[in-house]
Specification:
The protein is mainly alpha-helical. The termini are far apart. The chain has one domain. The longest helix has 25 residues. Helix 2 packs parallel to helix 4 and helix 3 packs across helix 4.
């Protein structure tokens, strides 16, 4: 088994930090900033890491796009179920990010060559 990468450790540390901040300091301004920053980038960064995208612009675009899409899908699912809870949505998104961060990256296809 390969050791975890820096991105994996960053995602796990950030998820743990946000979870602790939400639990122990839910009304603090620092918590709000940390939650917005994490949910804007965290889930998408876990997906980009799985895909092993090398182009920086493409990776950043997918990171923010996938993160915001995951945020909206989770929030909409709770609203449609009639069970909206910000804490529950945060737990689902944190769990999704941790699970995706723990998965090994997909193998690259050697026949594709270098990105253009």
């Amino acid at each position: 088994m390969k050791p975890p990468t820096a991105v994996t450790l960053l995602l796990l540390a950030a998820a743990g930090t946000v979870a602790c901040m939400l639990r122990f300091a839910p009304g603090a301004m620092a918590t709000t900033i940390a939650v917005i920053a994490f949910f804007s980038a965290g889930p998408g960064l876990a997906v980009v890491r799985l895909l092993a995208i090398r182009d920086l612009v493409e990776a950043l675009t997918l990171m923010f796009g996938v993160s915001l899409a995951a945020d909206v899908i989770v929030a909409e699912a709770f609203v449609q179920a009639g069970a909206w809870s910000g804490n529950a949505a945060a737990v689902v998104l944190l769990a999704l990010t941790v699970v995706l961060a723990a998965l090994p990256p997909f193998p690259r296809d050697p026949s594709r060559g270098a990105p253009e």
